[in-house]
């Protein structure tokens, strides 16, 4: 017998059978239940989509209760251990890991689209010296769409493919130039002999040396951080990408919208807040007082807790382990000792245990970024670069899903039903 839910309408005595599939009922199955004459049908009310699946997706699986994150079925720990960011981007977009020839072609295609139009460089001049890097990224993505008007043909798979490559290739260039603009240094052009992250480090940090040689440990650490941030199913910015993309907006403007969502401090800004918190604690001996304050409701333990993970965020585990490799090269970030002790104390405290609060991806990532020489305003940009592959995978999946249409939720109207216009003199 098929799984169904029987709903009895107490007002009419009528019963309705609603199919249960994949642990959900279809919201439009409730339309058959009318709340009055001429009624459109029963709707669901779900502010912030707390209990609504907005799509079917085969890309990323999260089981927050046990701390599982998988891309296309592959555990994040295995990908972080053995894969590269470009390989993972291919996996997210295509559903399978590439073979050797496919990976070579993919890497070659991305590498040869890293240059941006010179007008974009001119465009950077329009920003004030203190413009935030994320504001520049959002603007530059919108600007790129004006260079590629053909990208709006989003129903053409070849067009989609071409611009997915361009976007993944150019994100590091725009990001690095946004940083160089902030610090008043000349822009560095891509070095196509280097890896994706090696070239990014080159464009960020090269000075007068004839050829920039990224430190292999830092190059790999950044690559792993990119793998960990590449996708996270229907988070706020991905939802923005799907919603904006559902209007058949071109992928550059779609990613500008997703980046704007990521810019918000509730989404991409938590690792900066962790750094501020660790600095404010200042010393291990101050941790107990800080924890007492958090428990009393004076602020939160930043980098702890997650809407989905009610267990250790698997990304935080990988980052914590990697922090030691990075600090062996950069020198130990003194805030690490405070972070480790803070974690130990919190994880054995009844308040955090009871609420299932564990370190999330942001608890250690800011410490690593800071040690690698990134200013805090670059942290959300570092998130956006790899998340581009996730956004594009989800955007592509959405466009290919016959059930999807332009995203357009309903509302419960709470305003005044009707009134006559009042001339200004009578108000
Ligand atoms: N420190 C102290 N207490 C916390 C924390 C925290 N970091 N997070 C949650 N709690 C407490 C709440 O006070 C609440 O307690 P109560 O039941 O006594 O009222 C309980 O735990 C549940 O918290 P909610 O706010 O309902 O949990 P929600 O799922 O809405 O919030 C969030 C998740 C926003 C991530 C939250 O845990 C938080 O603010 N964490 C700190 C900020 C942070 O690290 N954000 C990054 C998230 S990862 C990312 O976006 C990439």
Determine the mean pLDDT: 95
Query: Strand order, biggest sheet?
Result: 3-4-5
Describe the main β-sheet briefly. Answer: 3 strands, antiparallel
Euclidean distance between termini CA atoms: 64 Å
Note the beta-strand portion.
under 5%
Order of helices and strands: EEEEEHHHHHHHHHHHHHHHHH
Structural class: mainly alpha
Care to count the β-strands?
5
| Ligands and ions found | acetyl coenzyme *A
Tally of individual helices: 17
Low-confidence spans: pLDDT under 50, at least 5 residues?
none
Helix residue percentage: 40-55%
The coarse silhouette is globular
Rounded Rg = 24 Å
In a nutshell, what does this entry contain?
The chain is mainly alpha-helical.
Task: Write up this protein.
The protein has 427 residues and is mostly helical. 50% of the residues lie in helices and 5% in strands. The protein has 17 helices and 5 strands. The protein has helices spanning 76-82, 85-94, 100-111, 118-124, 133-147, 157-183, 196-205, 216-229, 236-245, 251-263, 270-281, 287-295, 314-330, 335-347, 350-354, 362-371, 379-399, and strands spanning 4-8, 15-19, 60-63, 68-71, 74-75. The strands form 2 sheets. A 3-stranded antiparallel beta sheet has the order 3-4-5. Strands 1-2 form a two-stranded antiparallel ribbon. A hairpin with a 2-residue loop joins β4 (68-71) and β5. The chain starts with a strand and ends in a 28-residue tail after the last helix. The site of acetyl coenzyme *A (ACO) has 16 residues, from loops.
Entry keywords:
427 residues; two-stranded antiparallel sheet; mainly alpha; binds acetyl coenzyme *A; single chain; 50% helix
């Amino acid at each position: 017998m098929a799984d169904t839910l029987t709903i009895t309408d107490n007002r009419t005595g009528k019963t309705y059978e609603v199919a249960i599939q994949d642990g959900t009922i279809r919201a439009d199955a409730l339309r058959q239940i009318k709340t009055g004459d001429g009624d459109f049908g029963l709707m669901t009310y779900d502010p912030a989509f707390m209990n609504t699946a907005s799509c079917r997706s085969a890309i990323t699986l999260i089981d927050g209760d046990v701390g599982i994150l998988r891309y296309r079925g592959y555990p994040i720990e295995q990908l972080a251990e053995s894969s590269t960011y470009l390989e993972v981007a291919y996996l997210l977009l295509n559903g399978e890991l590439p073979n050797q020839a496919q990976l070579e072609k993919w890497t070659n295609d991305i590498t040869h689209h890293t240059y941006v139009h010179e007008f974009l460089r001119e465009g950077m001049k329009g920003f004030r010296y203190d413009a935030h890097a994320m504001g520049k990224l959002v603007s530059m993505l919108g600007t790129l769409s004006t260079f590629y008007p053909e990208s709006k043909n989003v129903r053409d798979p070849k067009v989609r493919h071409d611009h997915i490559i361009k976007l993944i290739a150019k994100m590091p260039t725009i990001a690095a130039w946004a940083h160089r603009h902030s610090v008043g240094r000349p822009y560095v052009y891509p070095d196509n002999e280097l890896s994706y992250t090696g070239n990014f480090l080159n464009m960020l940090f090269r000075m007068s040396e004839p050829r920039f040689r990224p430190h292999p440990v830092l190059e790999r650490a950044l690559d792993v951080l990119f793998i960990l941030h590449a996708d996270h199913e229907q988070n706020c910015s991905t939802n923005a990408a799907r919603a904006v993309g559902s209007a058949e907006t071109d992928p550059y403007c779609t990613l500008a919208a997703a980046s704007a969502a990521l810019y918000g401090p509730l989404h991409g800004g938590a690792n900066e807040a962790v750094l501020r918190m660790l600095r404010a604690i200042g010393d291990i001996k101050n941790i107990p007082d800080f924890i007492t304050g958090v428990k009393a409701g004076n602020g939160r333990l930043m980098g702890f807790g997650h809407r989905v993970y009610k267990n250790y965020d698997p990304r935080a585990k990988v980052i914590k382990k990697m922090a030691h490799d990075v600090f062996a090269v950069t020198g130990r970030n003194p805030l690490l000792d405070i972070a480790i002790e803070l974690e130990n104390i919190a994880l054995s405290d009844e308040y955090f245990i009871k609420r299932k609060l564990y370190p999330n991806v942001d608890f250690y990532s800011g410490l690593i970024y800071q040690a690698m020489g990134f200013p805090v305003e670059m942290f959300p940009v570092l998130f956006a670069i790899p998340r581009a592959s996730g956004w594009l995978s989800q955007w592509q999946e959405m466009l290919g899903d016959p059930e999807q249409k332009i995203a357009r939720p309903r509302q419960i109207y709470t305003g005044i039903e009707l009134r006559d216009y009042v001339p200004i003199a009578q108000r």
